Amino acid sequence: MNLAVLVILPCTFVLSIVLIGFARGYALKKNIVDLPNSRSSHRVPTPRAGGIGIAVSYVAALCGILLCRLIDFKTAATLIIAGCAIAAVGFLDDLLQLSARTRLAVHLAAAVFVVVTVGGFSERALVRWGLGEFWIGSTFAVLVLVWGTNLFNFMDGIDGLAASESIFVSGAGGWLYWLSGGDAGITAAMLGLAAASLGCLVWNWPPARIFMGDVGSGFLGFVMIALYMIASQRTRVPIEILPILGGVFLTDATTTLVRRFFRGDRLVEAHRMHAYQHLARKFGSHRQVTLMAIAVNLFWLLPWAYVATRFPDSAQMCLAAALLPLVVVALIAGAGRREQ
Q: In terms of C-beta density within 10 A (0-12 exposed, 13-18 middle, 19 or more buried), how is residue 286 classed?
């Protein structure tokens, strides 16, 4: 690993901590807080929008990686422009409660911009799924970016969960990409996102002293997927690695959405029907649920992702083996079930 990267990563971590600390002070001064309500999983007013520190520290990390000539200008500029657009609409939503239509329009525009500028998932990787046709693959990439952005927002509902998930998916993804012969630039970009998320976790670990808000969760989900798309173009790392590593969030959010859709619920309405929310109420502890998710990531999903990386031809089988049990667990835990 380049020596410059070993300097950039801890600097990103420290900068994230400092900026989120400033964001917390500003939020308290301006009364930018989440007040508990019937759809909340917290019980005390808590400052929000701390994710602005994640976004700014990560942009600084990308600039450092670019200055060290580890990443090309087009890739860095694309990630910064699109990521800032997602962070900006998330920040405005934290302040003003924007409509779902406005947020979705920005998410779509940013996703299209990324796919047009740097491309989507590699054609080689998509052929196995019958998505090798250019327009089909591009449309798929846009939809994955938009869904991933919102999925991460949906799953940011209890203390420490989204930040720890970002650390895992970005950090493990960077490691597996490097093992696959990936370049130092994208590896550093993935690890930088993990470092910025770790800075947030310092403040967001249960009991949270600040929430990352839409500005943080949307930014993390979007940039994470964009990095995986770029990585798939540069090595033979299978695209199945992303849904495997993100399996906890993917299965819970998707199972909940599908169940609510078939029941005829209003999908844009806020709720507390995800499996992790049911578990948090059952155990009366955010910390316990977050630790459970971390354990599943480390001891179940990471081994499957490693096998899929070492044996790409078995990636689809690894994906099914990793996620199907999690779907069953999500259903048992109550994903999509209405509160009593």
A: buried
295 is written with which tokens? 């354990």
Q: How far out from the chain centre does Cα 11 lie?
A: 21
Residue 46, SS3 per DSSP: strand
Question: Whose CA is closest to 339, among 294, 289, 268, 280?
Answer: 280
Quick check: 155 and 274 in contact, CB under 8 A? yes
Separation between Cα atoms, residue 5 and residue 321, nearest integer Å: 35
Taking only the tens place, the pLDDT of each residue in 149-193 is 999 999 999 999 999 999 999 999 999 999 999 999 999 999 999
Determine the pLDDT at residue 236.
Answer: 86
Q: Does the pTM exceed 0.90? A: yes
Can you tell me the distance from the alpha carbon of 46 to that of 43, in angstroms, rounded to the nearest whole number? 9
Residue 27: how many other CB atoms lie within 10 Å = 24
Three-state secondary-structure class, residue 33 = strand
Whether 3 and 71 have beta carbons less than 8 Å apart is answered as no
Query: 3-state DSSP call for residue 173?
Result: helix
DSSP H helical segments within the chain, as ranges?
3-29, 51-67, 73-96, 100-118, 123-127, 134-154, 161-179, 184-204, 213-234, 241-245, 247-263, 275-283, 286-296, 302-310, 315-333
Contact 166, 174 (CB under 8 A): no
By the 8 A CB rule, do 212 and 51 touch? yes
Angle at the Cα of 46 from the Cα atoms of 42 and 18, rounded to 5 degrees: 130
Domain boundaries, the chain: 3-239
82 Cβ contact partners less than 8 Å away, ≥ 6 residues apart? 110, 111, 113, 114, 222, 226
> What is the distance between the alpha carbons of residues 40 and 167, in angstroms, rounded to a whole number?
24
Please give the structure tokens belonging to residue 210: 């600040």
